[in-house]
Specification:
β8 (355-360) and β9 form a beta hairpin. Among the domains are: 9-28 and 54-233, Orthogonal Bundle (Penicillin binding protein transpeptidase fold), CATH 1.10.3810; 311-409, Nucleic acid-binding proteins (OB fold (Dihydrolipoamide Acetyltransferase, E2P), Beta Barrel). The protein has 761 residues and is of the alpha+beta class. It is globular, with a radius of gyration of 33 Å.
């Protein structure tokens, strides 16, 4: 496209009026408000913050179909007129005088640039006069392509999108270069009235406007008849997640925003600095692993929710005025019900025990037969609670299953969290702070203080090793009664999860089977105050773990963020970890202005526990995943280098699994925000472990099996499956009574995994 030489605006008679007009510096030195953007480690955009969501694009990078669509919709004579289109003014005047319909305007692209940068939108003759003068001044100082580029980047297009590149990303999740002809026509129809023709808010009017633009493109010869017909028939998929986040990393994006705000506070930088200067925050998360964590956490939560029954209708709509199954009022009613990811709102049109028909948000009518209604049958019964019964007017949720078939679903009440870290550096690889960010912004990874249950036992065992115990030390698995004189109240009679006791047993087996009685006796032997202080070596807060025997069962408080760092000490050979999620912050030109370099590997200044202690604990925690309460891990993933521990609190309030392979450490949790029982048998191995396994399938893909090398100071006893390591110390390990004992080779036959039974904890 070239500028026509048919006119020369520099010679027009109103040039003397230019000194009274605003300076064009804002145009010639264009610096728009660029939002803060957050990226994954592999440079995927995962978040955007700012009042104006904008992506700058050079005119040469704008695809031809987008330019043509804009010109067809807004100003087809843009490259011929001098800033004001006299032919367009006359055409609009004739249309307006002929009456009927809405009045037409005749603003050119140049006039819109003048108005957007310098003037208000008030409809007065004075404002219009200044707009015309400014248009001539702009044309006198800038080329047509420069003006067009300003327009393409500055114009407001709804959903906080400024410019067509931002709009393409927001409405379609695409780069501008990747949009189709039909999509370009839809975007080009937005400048006239972004709220009226918004495809999210008003898809019908947006469609009408799109067809108008396509017809104009055809009439102007920009597209041929085949292209025109194909574009008219094309189905557009509007991106529904318009909250400024993408790729299921909302909690990560919010953490990155908070870190940027702390690094560049308003009292030291211009107001809204981080939201207007194009800062880029690069996080440490891996996109593929983040998606795996998201999908497996959602599956774990929905599977748990389905096991505990259907709770009925979410709300009801008054159907008195709705006369047909496709009444527009149905769409309006569903718009008031927020969509939660793939749990789509739907309105029941008819319901019986044999069939339920629903109108799904978006226009599709779905029928569910008797076979699909077994799960919701209780709420179809005439005896169901009136405020929950499925009947005409009920708002419910539908979801597509793994086979692509629609199923009736519901919003889960339970919450969950997952976090994974590289135990060698502390870089967070994946983080999911809850089931759905837009529904609950509370970050359960960093903010939820919950009881760890048996997942806390490894720290008690590690403390015992430091006191002279070994994995082969014998401790009794027998009932114990703690008198009121020791508890300060009523006597305490703890029990094992399954109420079964095996008598004297080695620590290795006791940890694998998560024997509560052994943990309590072990804590009694080493002392509660010692154990409390010892937990600080792992980055845990001793004050959150009062020095009582209940500490042996994980009665204190931790966050998943703390637990992931604590377990990484076992994974990396004994070094304390400082997890971090932001690697660098860059300015709009890509220069690093803040960075978090990873700590050097194997820095002895960061050592938390002895390397021998870490190695022995690792070997015991691997037993947990091979033939203990988490045996499903090694069987499913077909690896022998996994280690970890399940955790279930008293009354099944919290369920955990924390574990690792030497290259990645991860922790999964599930529970209710207002603590209540998850349900009988809903243990860490039943609800948290599957999430962990699902994530590890992706994280350990193509990672070879690797076992740690024993450090100096350990002696190997036995061979093959019976090989164990014991510490080569000058003194013998102690029994629970404090007596020295002989080094004992653990020759006990390991129990076989019982995967067909609920795992104990």
């Amino acid at each position: 496209m070239k500028i026509s030489s048919a006119y020369n605006p520099r010679n027009v008679y109103w040039k003397p009026l230019y000194p009274n007009l605003p300076s064009l510096e804002v145009l010639t030195d264009y610096r728009p408000r660029i939002p803060l953007r957050v990226y994954s480690a592999d440079e995927r955009l995962i978040g955007e913050f700012g009042e104006e969501r904008r992506a700058l694009v050079k005119i040469g990078d704008v695809p031809a179909i987008m330019k043509q669509a804009i010109l067809a919709a807004e100003d087809d004579r843009f490259y011929q007129h001098p800033g004001v289109d006299s032919m367009g003014v006359m055409r609009a005047a004739v249309a307006n005088l002929s009456g009927g319909g809405k009045k037409q305007g005749a603003s050119t692209i140049t006039q819109q640039v003048a108005r957007n940068f310098f003037l208000t939108s008030e409809k007065t003759y004075t404002r219009k006069f200044y707009e015309i003068l400014l248009s001539f001044k702009i044309e006198n100082n800038l080329s047509k392509d420069q003006i067009f580029e300003l327009y393409i980047n500055q114009i407001f297009l709804g959903q906080r999108a400024y410019g067509f590149a931002a709009a393409a990303k927001i409405y379609y999740g695409k780069d501008l270069n990747d949009i189709s002809l039909a999509e370009a026509a839809m975007l080009a129809g937005l400048p006239k009235a972004p709220s009226t023709f918004n495809p999210v808010v008003n898809p019908k009017r947006a469609r009408d406007r799109q067809l108008y633009v396509l017809k104009r493109m055809f009439d102007l010869g920009y597209i041929n008849n085949k292209q025109y017909q194909e574009a008219k028939e094309a189905t557009l998929t509007i991106k529904r997640e318009l909250g400024g986040y993408a790729e299921h990393a909302e909690y990560v994006a919010e953490m990155a925003r908070q870190i940027a705000a702390e690094r560049f506070p308003e009292d030291a930088y211009p107001r809204d600095f981080i939201y207007t200067h194009g800062l880029k925050v690069y996080t440490t998360i891996n996109y593929e692993e983040q998606e795996a964590a998201y999908q497996n956490l959602r599956k774990g939560v929905l599977d748990y929710d389905r096991r505990h029954g259907y709770r009925g209708a979410e709300s009801f709509v008054d159907m008195t005025e709705i006369t047909s199954d496709r009444d527009e009022d149905i769409d309006l009613a569903l718009e008031k019900t927020p969509q939660v990811a793939d749990l789509i709102p739907a309105l029941v049109l008819a319901a019986s025990p044999q069939q339920v028909r629903v109108y799904q948000s978006g226009g599709e009518i779905i029928s569910f037969g008797a076979a699909q209604l077994k799960w919701v049958a209780r709420m179809l019964d005439s005896n169901a609670p009136p405020n929950k019964r499925l009947k005409r007017g009920a708002i419910i949720r539908v979801i597509k299953d793994e086979k692509g078939q629609w199923q009736i679903a519901q919003l889960p009440e339970v919450e969950s969290a997952f976090v994974a870290v590289d135990p060698r550096t502390g870089a967070i690889r994946a983080l999911i702070g809850g089931f759905d960010f837009n529904r609950n912004k509370f970050n359960h990874v960093t903010q939820a203080w919950r009881q760890p249950g048996s997942s806390f036992k490894p720290f008690i065992y590690s403390a015992a090793l430091e006191k002279g115990y070994s994995p082969s030390s014998i401790v009794k698995d027998e009932p114990v009664v703690i008198p009121g004189s020791e508890t300060g109240g009523a006597a305490w009679t703890p029990h094992n999860y399954d109420n079964k006791y095996e008598g004297p047993m080695m620590l290795r087996r006791a940890l694998a089977r998560s024997k509560n009685m052994v943990s309590i006796r072990l804590l009694q032997a080493i002392g509660t105050n010692y154990a409390q202080d010892y937990t600080s070596k792992f980055g845990l807060d001793p004050e959150k773990h009062p020095p009582y025997l209940t500490m042996a069962l994980g009665a204190g408080s931790v966050t998943p963020w703390q637990m992931i760092g604590a377990y990484s000490v076992f994974a990396n050979g004994g070094f304390k970890l400082q997890p971090y999620i932001v690697s660098s912050i860059r300015d709009e030109r890509g220069n690093i202005i803040a960075a978090m370099p990873p700590p050097p590997s194997g820095n002895e200044a960061m050592r938390a526990i002895d390397a021998r202690n870490a190695f022995l604990m690792d070997s015991m925690l691997r037993d947990v995943t091979i033939y203990g309460t988490a045996a499903k891990a090694s069987v499913t993933l077909k690896r022998q280098d996994l280690a970890g521990k399940t955790g279930t609190t008293n009354d099944f309030l919290d369920a955990w699994f924390c574990g690792y392979q030497k290259t990645v450490s991860a922790c999964a949790w599930m529970g209710f925000d207002q603590p209540k029982k998850l349900g009988d048998r809903e243990t860490g191995g039943a609800v948290a472990l599957p999430i962990w396994i699902g994530y590890m399938k992706t994280a350990l893909k193509n990672v070879p099996v690797s076992l740690p090398e024993p450090p100096e100071g350990l002696v190997k006893i036995g061979s093959g499956k019976e090989m164990v390591y014991v510490e080569n110390k000058g003194h013998k390990p102690k029994t629970e009574d404090g007596e020295e004992e002989e080094d004992v080779e653990d020759k006990s036959e390991p129990p076989k995994p019982e995967l067909d039974k609920p795992p104990t904890d």
